[in-house]
Amino acid sequence: MRRLRRTAPLRALIRETQLTPSDFIQPFFVAENEASRTAITSMPGVAQLSISELIGEARQTAALHIPAIILFGIPDEKDEVGSQAYARDGIVQRAVRAIKDAVPDLLVMTDVCLCEYTSHGHCGIVENGEVLNDPTLELLARTAVSHAEAGADLIAPSDMMDGRVAAIRRALDSSGHEMTPILSYAAKYASSFYGPFREAAQSAPQFGDRRSYQMDAGNAREALREVELDLAEGADMVMVKPALAFLDILWRVKEMSPVPVGAYNVSGEYSMVKAAAERGWVDGQAIMMEILQSIKRAGADFILSYHACEAARLLTWA
Ligand code: PBG
Q1: How far is CA 253 from CA 184, 189, 230, 250, 300, in A?
Q2: What percent of the chain has pLDDT over 90?
Q3: Which of 78, 188, 274, 296 is catalytic?
Q4: What pTM did the predictor assign?
Q5: 194 CB less than 6 Å from ligand 1?
Q6: What domains can be seen in the chain, in order of their start residue?
């Protein structure tokens, strides 16, 4: 076996899994706050951005040949029904218009969910301490249409309500956005790996947790059922989330899915690498690449990652 491992060119020639910048989607947090950048303590190198800062970052992302970004909005005002999520001039809607104007060739995806916009921090409407399913669908559909209207290229619902892909597909089709694809967060687990994101997006639930809508980490076959349902409802692509502790799920989904499969290398996965590297306990760049490669090897056709630009820079210079 060692004959083919002897030199770097030999290894490069026969490597099955090669990362390229076009594997990545870079997430960004855009805030209404006038401050151009607000650092996120638990995610070194990541910040909440104003729209003008975001445009600069979007340009750099496109220059690295990363095909797409995904936007998360941080509104100034939150209320019980998350009305800023579907406001025509909400923060994401304005950001999408600005980016499509400035960097038209960059794919702009939007995360569709209510948790960043609701005062209680849940992903749906709350009544008597319960997150209601069907009444939430209408608001998610309105949010999706408002993003498409602003020019979003692709809609990515992350709320985990049942039936949301069908509701969003129907709403997009009947508002003239039949060509806007849906990337469903199909197998999204209730995970502590989202911890830093909730600081970043100020979206931690104010009571209880998300276990009544996000998946239980002990279940694998249920993920396949979630994917089948989302496909039946019209999802164009599906996603597994988180990535690293769920690579077995990613592999199983890739085996059965007829559509492209993405993986979300989530905030906690990112922050653990940054924290250990800061202490000098690991080689941060090397384990970043190893982690991203493992996600692609497990079956991801594309990877949402806060490392995207950094990894693309390394790949470009290497
Ligand atoms: C919104 C949403 C979350 C993430 C993506 N979309 C948070 C959550 O479900 O609590 C997490 C992303 C990350 O941790 O990087 N529902």
Answers
A1: 13, 14, 12, 5, 10
A2: 97
A3: 188
A4: 0.97
A5: yes
A6: 23-317 (3.20.20.70)
